[in-house]
Write a structure and sequence with these properties.
about 70 residues
Length: about 70
């Protein structure tokens, strides 16, 4: 909240107006986002993915690779 207050003061606007602008911008950006493209992930070899690995969970993937 302190950052929002500073940014609002820097732009000489109220906190409410600053938040309204930020939400409006986020909604506009979200509306222009392209639809997700279905991607087929191919695995090689007979084993495929390791049990318990979720490709949608980047933290779990890094942990499985020993990078965390």
């Amino acid at each position: 909240m302190a950052r929002i207050k500073r940014r609002a003061a820097d732009s000489r606007t109220s906190v409410t107006a600053f938040i309204e602008d930020a939400v409006r911008e986020a909604l506009t950006r979200h509306g222009k986002r392209a639809r997700a493209v279905q991607v087929e992930l191919r695995t090689y070899g007979e084993k495929g993915l390791q049990p318990g690995v979720d490709l949608d969970d980047s933290v779990a993937l890094l942990d499985a690779m020993g990078e965390v």
